[in-house]
Amino acid sequence: MISLIVDEAYAFDYLSILAIKKDFSEQNLRLWFECEQNLKRQFSESDWLRIIESKEYKAIVDANKKTFDAVDKAKTNDVTAQYVDYCNYERYLAKKQLQETFFSKSISEFKIGYDKLLNSESNINS
Question: pTM for the full model?
Answer without folding.
Answer: 0.85
